[in-house]
């Protein structure tokens, strides 16, 4: 359904790759899909296609492009997992937020009057940063990592944010989860759902996926975007 395109970065100094999927009928709502550490792989492309099938213009920017463009890794292969982790360590996440902002602007320039964003794992962390630092109209974070270290930005959340937290997340200890809950509980724009699952339970496919919980979380995300991006 989709295709690889190039979109300008915020300062117009270069272009980055992105996977773009468009619905059958012209739409005025868009969603930016924020990758895991595995690049714009088949799972991220499938998720982007799914949003297009639901009537959104969807785009997944290649956030590794400054380090290594065109990455496509398999989360179920240990050596590729380690490769993805290494790429994440080399990227500048502050710069990545500017790249996400550029993807949001691309959708707005294409005629979208409302644009949201959804991210997973590393992308879940970037989704929180997107909610705090960009003009995303509605944002969803799936099991973001290192969020406890970002709670100084909790007061910057000015538009709706939905968060899915895995209570048995091997990358996010219970005390970190508690810090996130405590910092965000007073903001009426933030909704948090907890799931009795490990990290990546809503990945599109692979051994980490927990179908029943993935479907529950995705249903909540769909309802959230249907309400906030109308």
Helix/strand layout:
Elements: E1 3-8, E2 15-21, E3 29-34, H1 42-53, E4 57-61, H2 78-90, H3 93-109, E5 114-120, H4 122-133, E6 138-142, E7 161-166, H5 174-184, E8 190-195, H6 211-228
Parallel strand pairs: 3-4, 3-5, 5-6, 6-7, 7-8
Antiparallel strand pairs: 1-2, 2-4
Helix pairs in contact: 3-4
Folded structure, characterized:
The chain has 230 residues and is α/β, with parallel strands linked by helices. It has one domain: Alpha/Beta hydrolase fold, catalytic domain (Rossmann fold, 3-Layer(aba) Sandwich), CATH 3.40.50.1820. The protein has six helices and eight strands. An eight-stranded mixed β-sheet has the order 1-2-4-3-5-6-7-8, with helices on both faces. α3 crosses α4. The radius of gyration is 16 Å and the shape is globular.
CATH homologous superfamily - what is it? Alpha/Beta hydrolase fold, catalytic domain
CATH class term: Alpha Beta
Would you identify the CATH architecture?
3-Layer(aba) Sandwich
Main beta-sheet annotation: 8 strands, mixed
Percent helix, as a range, is: 25-40%
N-to-C terminal Cα separation, in Å?
A: 23 Å
As for the number of domains, it is: 1
Query: So what's the overall shape?
Result: globular
């Amino acid at each position: 359904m989709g295709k690889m395109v190039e979109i300008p970065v915020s300062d117009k100094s270069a272009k980055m790759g992105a996977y773009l999927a468009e619905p059958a009928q012209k739409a005025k709502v868009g969603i930016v899909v924020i990758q895991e550490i595995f690049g714009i792989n088949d799972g991220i492309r499938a998720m982007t296609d799914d949003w297009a099938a639901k009537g959104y213009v969807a785009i997944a920017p290649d956030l590794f492009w400054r380090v290594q463009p065109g990455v496509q890794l398999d989360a179920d292969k240990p050596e590729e997992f380690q490769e993805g982790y290494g790429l994440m360590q080399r990227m500048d996440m502050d710069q990545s937020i500017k790249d996400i902002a550029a993807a949001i602007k691309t959708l707005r320039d294409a005629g979208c009057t409302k644009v949201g964003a959804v991210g997973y794992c590393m992308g879940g962390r970037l989704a929180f940063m997107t909610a705090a630092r960009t003009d995303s109209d509605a944002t969803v974070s799936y099991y973001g990592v290192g969020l406890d270290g970002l709670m100084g930005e909790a007061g910057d959340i000015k538009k709706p944010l939905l968060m899915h937290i895995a209570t048995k997340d091997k990358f996010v200890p219970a005390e970190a989860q508690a810090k996130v809950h405590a910092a965000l509980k007073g903001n009426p724009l933030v909704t948090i759902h907890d799931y009795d699952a490990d990290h990546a339970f809503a990945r599109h496919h692979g051994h980490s996926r927990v179908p029943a919980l993935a479907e529950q979380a995705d249903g909540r995300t769909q309802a959230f975007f249907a309400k906030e991006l109308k």
